[in-house]
From TrEMBL:
It comes from Massilia atriviolacea. Residues 1-29 form the signal peptide. This is Molecular chaperone. Keywords: Signal. The keyword Heme does not apply. It comes from the Bacteria.
Amino acid sequence: MHSTYSLPRAARLLAAVALLAALPLQALAGLMLNPTRIVFVKNQRAAQVELINSDSTPATYRIRLVNRRMSESGEFTGVDSAGPDDRFADAMLTFSPRQVTLQPGSAQVVRVMLRKPAELAAGEYRSHLHFEKLADSGATSVEQQGAAPQQIGVVLNSLIGASIPVIVRHQTAGASVTLGALALRQAGQGTHLDFQIARSGDSSVYGDISAVFVAQGGAEQVLAKAAGVAIYTPNPLRKASLAMPAGVSLARGSVHLRYRERPEAGGAVLAEATLALP
């Protein structure tokens, strides 16, 4: 039996604020996940993820493992079978429970277990733990739901979900990163800073990006930030862009781009690059 537990209202609010700051992509329709990624290293064999229903109504979530590839632009596509460069982790992972119903403000811990094969080749393996919010189980007919007398009601029940990567590192040596191809691009009424993140080695990288304008006189101004930017193996390159704030004159100075580890990983600088502006 897998039990859920209710969080006190103050604790729920504090958790929501913290998680929303850390998980801009994982707080969806009242579902919040903590942590937003799992990385198994060395002899680690178990981990857990906490689901929190911060919505005002009960919700049922179905949990499953999926395999995905990342494109150079950071988009994911589902994969049915592994290619020659793919290393998926689903065959060595188990988890429990597989489905849970949460009352408003309650939480559930999902436990993830790893069992490595005896002859596992060195490298990094990855799958994604997907949490799918199911449609209201009480909906039996779109004609009946929400229909007043002599009218036909229509209800659209969309399936909403979020995923977190589950990474298994086995005898890996690490990765190195460089930033390059910095260029300003006009897009409509706005300006974007385009750049590329190049990765080498046998591990993925994950961190935060920040862009700072440094005027010729020495004054600095933070232009944009992006949290939780990843490049997964086997990809060697990720193309990305940051929107520059409106009304800022980007001239007679330079834009300094920095990619660093997440604060919980130590915050070390992974790569830096500078774009000089006339």
